[in-house]
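Support case: user asked for a sample of complex input and structure output to validate their parser. Sending the pair below.
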Amino acid sequence: MPEKVITADKLTKRFGDFTAVDQISFEVEKGEIFGFLGANGAGKTTAMRMLCGLSMPTSGAATVAGFDVYRDNEKIKRNIGYMSQKFSLYDDLTVKENMQFYGGIYGKSDAFIKNKTAYILDELHLEKEAHVLVRSLPLGWKQKLAFSVAVFHEPGIVFLDEPTGGVDPVTRREFWNMIYQASDSGITVFVTTHYMDEAEYCNRVSIMVDGRIEALDTPGALKQQHEARSMDEVFLKLARKAKRGEG
Amino acid sequence: MKQFLSFVKKEFFHIWRDKSTLLILLGMPVVQIVIFGFALTNEVKNSRIAVLDPSKDASSLAITAELDASRYFDLEKNLVNFAQVEEEFRRGKIKLAVIFPAHFADDLQHFNKATVQLIADASDPNVANTLTNYATAIITDYQARITGNKQLPYTIQTEMRMLYNPQMKGAFNFVPGLMAMVLLLVCTMMTAITIVKEKEMGTMEVMLVSPMRPQMVVLAKAVPYLFISSINIATILLLSVYALEVPINGSLFLVVAESILFTLVSLSLGLLISSSAGTQQTAMFISLIGLFMPTLMLSGFMFPIENMPLPLRVISNIVPAKWYYLVVRSVMIKGVGLQEIWKETLVLFGMLVFFLTLAIRKFKIRLA
């Protein structure tokens, strides 16, 4: 029985009359790449925020890394990495300074930060750019760097909120290679996306429509169930039921 | 602690990399001191005047000479007829006209009574008032001298002393006001803007997901601005003492301590603004309209609070700068100690506790 690192049970978030996330239930296993799909406004980001402790659930239960999202907020934060939809590095800091900063706020030792920084610079072939302001890097590099920074402190779980928005296909491929590497080293990856080709890369995907999870399985099984050739088709079949507009 | 230091270091990088803002932050007090100290002064110096003197006798000439010799007036023109007076005013050439009657000295000697007419350009009422007062004083002075020892049986002589500021220097008034303004601008506006900037950029989200405590984020944001404010306080005090010759009559330590208290009040105000503003523009707007304007108008630095209608006088009490201004002016200029200003200090302290509590409670740990 593999370890469950994220569990959600009828997790719900309401904003006034509007139910952004409606009783979603799922489990994510350790080391899994879990794709969280949905049209814009389907509630992906809200659901993810509840799991990260950025947003308080209205009802239902959830645990992340074994900790309750209501009570053990602070403990969860120590065990997760997060890459936001918006670009999350500081433009006016150099590549190295950004890494030092994030290592610092996670309370890592100087030796750890030094080794890890050298390792990442080597991995990303950014040694020459170590002292370049992030502002002047191309977007693809920035995204890869942002991912490295999100897992800098070696968390058990990393949450990626539409990490590849606006990135070219080649870089997206490289980005996914990094995700595989992280997964191989035991990091659980929870990723939202609306690129359906990326959904194929995930171990399992859930598809959210109007705040509810309409489907949850491996990409292969989903395609079979819906008699579709690609995830794109599966998604379109499900998303057509949506009543909410693009949001 | 390491988390905190990493954050503070990052903030210094932000400030250091943004050279133009840094220049403004550090240069602003210097520019303001120069503008207020040398250009925008309430003192009226070298005002141009015209004299219409049909009598041209010893007395009228002596008075004219004394007016011209004083540092307040420069004799622009001797007029020959009354029509010219208005013409000169209209052309904006002069601020004051002095008009002697014909036979001025005769009147003075034979009737013991002579009139001099002072006509001032009251389109600026304050200046007009000041100029007529100066001119009257010079003429009264002359009269006292020619009366000499011939003591009149009953005279009341007023003797005036301008306490704490015998030369009536404007700088004594605006240096404390300027300190309040600069501190408010740097601390409140800059803190509000940098925090809102992180919200806008999305980095605040990352910060909130990290184990860094939100209170620590806020505190770390404040440290660099506290540092810049200290430099600014030093700049203003040095410039005002050495360039404007404003004394620090009270304890320097007390001035600095009160300034730090006010800085903290400003920082917590900035924090409060940042928690309600969504964009940098909003933060800037609230800081300028909601804080800067009331400070300028209601702190007593530009306009005396005593002359305001009751509602404004009441409102002025909630402007922190009013209290700080009172404190600094009392300590710097009057040289009083803590026993005379403890009430104002207590008000500032109360404001600090109130705003800080409110700001921390409003600061959202979770985004929604």
